[in-house]
Amino acid sequence: TVQFWKGMGPLVVKYKLLKFKATKWDQLGEDDQEYKRRITAYREKSAPQLVDLILSLGGIYTKIAQVMSTIGQGLLPDEYIEALRPLQDGVPARNFDEISTIIERSTKQKMGELFVEFDEKPIGAASIGQAHKARLRSNGETVVVKVQYPEVAELFEADLSNLEMATRLFAPENMEVAKALRKRHENELDFEIEAMNLRQCTEDMQEYGLEPNLVRIPRVYHVYGRNILIMEYLKGVSLGDAIEEEQNRVAKALGKKDARELKSELSKRMREHMENGGGAGSGGMKMLGGKQAKMLNIFGPAASMVLRSYAGARDRVEGIGLSLGIAAGRLRSAMAGKGGSDDLILQSRKTTKVKTKINLSKAIKTLVHVSGIQLMLGRSYNADPHPGNVLILPDGKLGLLDYGMVGKLSKSDRHAVARTILALSKRDKAETARIYTENGYRAEFKEGTTADTAVLHRFASFHLDRIDLSPLTLDSGETVDTLELLRSTREKAVPKFVEEGRRLGGLLMGVSTQAARPISLSKEWKPIAERVLKEK
Q1: Contact 406, 383 (CB under 8 A)
Q2: Rounded CA gap, 432 and 449, in Å?
Q3: Which of 162-176, 286-300, 454-468 has the highest mean predicted lDDT (pLDDT)?
Q4: FRET pair for 36, CA 20 to 30 Å: which of 164, 206, 343, 513?
Q5: Is pLDDT of 339 > 80?
Q6: Per DSSP, which regions of 402-532 are E strands?
Q7: What is the pTM of this model?
């Protein structure tokens, strides 16, 4: 807590002073260009400092930042989204000597006894540990070795205790939510539980015909206590990288240096889309409009595909020289005639991107569909499907990684989610509000307990349907600004199905927004919800 405020305090003070000087001293309005310039300059400077603070704190702060980088698109300033986004793929890794020591202590075996090959450079690093590619000595299979840092459990305990203390002081009615969060993160720190989750979710997805037809979940090979998990290696491109790659290619095709300017424009268009009600609509580069995408307006929906094809062709031409160079290097290596041995080979290869034909719209639709099946029909669901935890495999299927953070709903909670989805799909405000109220959701708006149908329906939309920032008309006829409504409302009680559903829903809406392909969850999940209630 002290370390948090020691780093965060100066940033908050600087921001408050900046706003005070601009509005009170220099008499600038929030719409003045000079005011916007100062705020933008502050954000550009403070965003990297905020990331450095989060990395130094680690633990639950990193987890929160990963979630915000996904669900914040169109809501948080671009500068912070861009600074936080690299956390989706990981955080700085630890050195090989430290990792090998953890593995040998946990397995009580030498590295050479376990592995024929082991990549020193991790394929991913997170707040609780890191993952390495390796090849097993026992059967020659290529695997991923997940290693948890030994001190993580103690650090998370301190973070969660601080969170519970703050909840007890300022929002005691939400203690059950805080306790559920503790349980979820405690489970994430136990690789034996993750191995069980992987097997259970695989069985569920196979029962519903999704695995391996649409998705792949890694198979578990070995688990050594809480700290070491060895599982199947899936080769593919992370969803986050695929989104980034598409936007970079399109930006280049439009004559831009990189995707930064394009992302800023897409973010603005997404924000406008949300202010007009959000939900499913024209996606991808069609969101741009304007002069810089004039061809999209002239040629219609097919233009996005044409533009992406042109961008891809341009990349292939530019890559011919590089490909020839790589081929020549491999030929020289082969002619060198290096011999093999039974020793452990430590690899330190540069990461190369897998060339995969990617249909982002299909990938996001698949992720949303599978997540809905897991949430409402399965025994458990992946509660952390951010873009760094999803792979697009060479055959177009999705690889669903990291089942440390898993949620489980009771039958009654799954039915409550399903009923809410159907009410939202029909735009039935009264029924949506009734479901929330009957299940114990309570919030205060304008210093009074609200039973306002419009407010409850809008909140439920945020949780399980769409990001809708359009002005809201209350039951009384008064019109309120949605962001002001969110800022001034205080939740007093949140039922489990809302807490679990809105976290998953927020992540999925965030991923689709990041890819400029807005969705309506109630539209996508309506057939699943109908099935759930029919099986009742």
Answers
A1: yes
A2: 17
A3: 454-468
A4: 513
A5: no
A6: 406-407, 442-444, 472-473, 479-480, 490-493
A7: 0.71
Q: Do the strands 129-136 and 115-119 form a parallel or antiparallel pair, or are they unpaired?
A: antiparallel
The tokens 């590619």 sit on which residue?
133
- Judged against a pLDDT cut of 90, whether residue 475 lies above it is answered with no
Cα(371)–Cα(196) distance, integer angstroms: 18
Q: Which two tokens stand for residue 322?
A: 């590089």
Helical H runs in 377-477? 411-425, 429-438, 453-464
ω into residue 212 within 30 of 0, thus cis? yes
> What is the spatial distance between Cα 470 and Cα 305, in angstroms, rounded to a whole number?
30
Q: 117 by DSSP, 3-state: which?
A: strand
What mean pLDDT do residues 452-472 have? Answer: 92
* Phi, psi for residue 312 in degrees, rounded to 5: -65, -40
Q: Which residues of 356-366 are buried (b: 16+ CB within 10 A; e: fewer)?
A: bebebeebbeb
Query: CA–CA separation, 215 vs 399, rounded Å?
Result: 6
- Does the structure show a pLDDT above 80 at 355? no
Paired with 143 in beta bridges are: 134, 232
What per-residue confidence (pLDDT) applies to 172?
Answer: 64
Q: Diameter of the chain by CA atoms? A: 82
Average pLDDT over residues 17-22: 89
Which residue in 282, 277, 267, 283 sits closest to 461, CA to CA? 277
* CB contact at 8 A, 271 and 470: no
Structure tokens at 277: 């009600």
- The stretch 140-148 carries a mean pLDDT of 95
pLDDT value of residue 273:
60
